[in-house]
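Appendix B. One record, verbatim.
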Amino acid sequence: MIDDITPTEFVRLCEDDARWQVLDVREPWEFEVSSIDNAILMPMSDVPKRISELDSTRPTAVLCRSGIRSRNVAEFLAEQGFARLINIAGGINAWSQEVDATLEQY
């Protein structure tokens, strides 16, 4: 089961545990429009062939534009044995509304 949490909830979660890695599964052009510091850009279609670049023992939050692609990737990563996964509900657009209004929505 993959939990959906809001960007605000995720920020609070990171305050207690800094080990989280953020996987951004959007396309490079989307990442250029707006992105989160220290996020790992890995477009959804690249995840299966680049999965070895991720640390499966670290908790992982998956992010996209609105939360749909990220949920699919989180489910895939769960099948691959990743330890702890969450989906950032509402994606980068919700992040812009809740956490960092300087991020451009698209």
